[in-house]
Specification:
41% strand, disordered N terminus, HSP20-like_chaperone, A-crystallin/Hsp20_dom, single chain, Small_HSP, Hsp20/alpha crystallin family protein, four-stranded antiparallel sheet, 7 strands, Immunoglobulin-like
């Protein structure tokens, strides 16, 4: 979609505020959130999170009490170049990124066997499915005595 140019005539100030808080602006502000793919096969679900430059230490993955897979990431970068004699910063750059995503786990996932790894800039979480026999055990009919 091509951006449109607004006509800021006499009421330019309210229009600027409307544009600033517009939903499209909010979507652009969240553009730093990593892309996520969810893939289903007969044997498992895979969650892929774009994570360029991230290591396994930058992630925290856990299961919540609400049966959600919680993926959080936090990355801090700081780069310094200083004058060694006078200790003045000639240049100092730092950045901070934080992200959290919650995904509801399907009932057929073996929660005990979920695993994850980071490779080539992608965090991959494998959620194996229960076998038909395991599903039958979980969904068994309970006899009333």
């Amino acid at each position: 979609m091509m951006p449109t140019r607004k006509n800021y005539s006499q009421n330019w100030l309210p229009s600027i505020f409307n544009d600033f808080f517009d939903n499209d602006w909010m979507v652009r502000a969240n553009a730093t959130a990593p892309a996520i793919n969810v893939i289903e096969s007969d044997k498992d679900y895979k969650v892929e999170v774009a994570a360029p430059g991230m290591t396994k230490d930058d992630f925290n993955i856990h299961l919540s009490e609400d049966n959600e897979l919680v993926i959080s990431m936090e990355k801090k970068n700081e780069s310094k170049e200083e004058d060694k004699e006078n200790k003045k910063y000639l240049r100092r750059e730092f950045s901070y990124s934080k992200f959290e995503q919650r995904l509801v786990i399907p009932d057929d996932v073996e929660k005990e066997n979920i695993n994850a790894n980071v490779s080539d800039g992608v965090l991959t979480i494998d959620l194996p499915k229960r076998t038909p026999e395991e599903k039958a055990k979980v969904n068994r009919v309970i006899e009333i005595h």
